[in-house]
Amino acid sequence: MSMTAPTTRTRVGKYEIGRTLGEGSFAKVKFATNVETGHPVALKIIDRHHVLHHQMVEQIKREISTMKLVNHPNVLKIMEVMASKTKIYIVLEYVAGGELFDKIAKMGRLKEDEARKYFQQLINAVDYCHSRGVFHRDLKPENLLMDSFGVLKVSDFGLSAFSKQVRGDGLLHTACGTPNYVAPEVLTDKGYDGTSADIWSCGVILYVLLAGYLPFDEPNLMTLYKKIHKADFSCPSLFSSGAKNLIKRILDPKPLTRMTVPEILSHEWFKKNYMPPSFEQEEGINVDDIDAAFDGNEEHLVTERKEKPVSMNAFELISRSQSFNLDNLFEKQMDLSGLVKRETRFASKCPANEIMSKIEEAAKPLGFNVHKRNYKMRLQGDKTGRKGHLSVATEVFEVAPSLHMVELRKTGGDTLEFHKFYKSFSSGLKDVVWDTQSKDEDTTS
């Protein structure tokens, strides 16, 4: 097999950028390494024009400044903010334990004591940020991360304002992207109070932790909205009476009578084995970088240099693996029901261009439009599913001169539809997937 030339990594300021950790409609999150310290970080990359267009600069500056000063054990820390001419970069703490969603996908519902432990940490984080005037507005399991010790970290506090709008009435307005977790008053677009809306989302999350499925989940969007507006749901019989009582009081469709954080903190079910958070505020944190990132002064701007495909270093490989056994890295990630989760990956010993061509060949007959850019592709389904069009992002990474890793991530649409797509799609890629079972073959040829 021919050797590929060494590639140059992408760098922004003192950070080397690696793989994509997550992707949304207005931002992307990348793994990055501080080249001065070697420490891993998560880099949230936001389109600068999106912020300016929505006239949210002052609100976002205020919220990010507040969140940079936060040093709460259950809130993902903002470390630094930078900007280029076209992008804003928010440097975040990197946590290696994955999303809480993946734990539920793998194990199903959690035992009550474990669910309570995560819910207590969630309420601690929400209460603390609310006390500083910052609301999340988009709480869902994908925004709940775990560190390697199983400590819950809420991400995107103070950042969800990028996709929201505050109008002259002082209330928040949003076109919601994740309706299953959203409070009824948010869906009406008449404006809402961020405090009680966040509490509703916490109630939905607690239900999912205990049941392993959503309280409101309908394929038809209008039916779903009606059920949310009426709080039309039922608790499984396996819920304890305390859990049922708490969830029913939180999922109250009327914001004014919905349970508040002080009421949750004093509820008997919540108080069991409760440990109040213990932490100290850091002294001397500077927020000048936030002003500099938004003021447009070219003196403070950073530049981004790109050449793809990206090479992976050993730390990134290990951070992706279930253990230090790298064989795990090249196996399809499955949950217990045998379904591929919202992202999966495979290894290939084919050249990067050949891999890209094969992906395109496999996707088009399945009704997907293919958009290519460097060694990345976006596959956009032409049919509308239960949560809109299914879209999948793919990226080819160079692991070694003759070995590539291909990552696929669902970036839009329904997870079950992604499972069905992947089953058909993967059968068309057999020629390029490296069969790691054949370990006795000479891999250097």
Q: Outline, from the CA principal axes?
A: globular
Strand content: 15-25%
Quaternary state reads single chain
Average pLDDT over all residues: 78
From N to C, what is the helix and strand string?
EEEEHHEEHHEEEEHHHHHHHEHEHEEEEH
CATH superfamily of the largest domain: Transferase(Phosphotransferase) domain 1
- By DSSP (H or I, 4+ residues per run), the number of helices equals 14
Query: How many structurally independent domains?
Result: 2
Largest sheet: 7 strands, antiparallel
C-alpha end-to-end distance:
6 Å
Helix content bin: 25-40%
Strand order in space, largest sheet: 5-6-4-3-2-1-11
Find the count of extended strands (DSSP E, 2+ residues): 16
* Secondary structure category: alpha+beta
Uncertain ranges: 1-6, 163-177, 322-339, 438-445
Short note summarizing the structure:
This protein has 14 helices and 16 strands. α4 packs antiparallel against α6 and α6 runs antiparallel to α8.
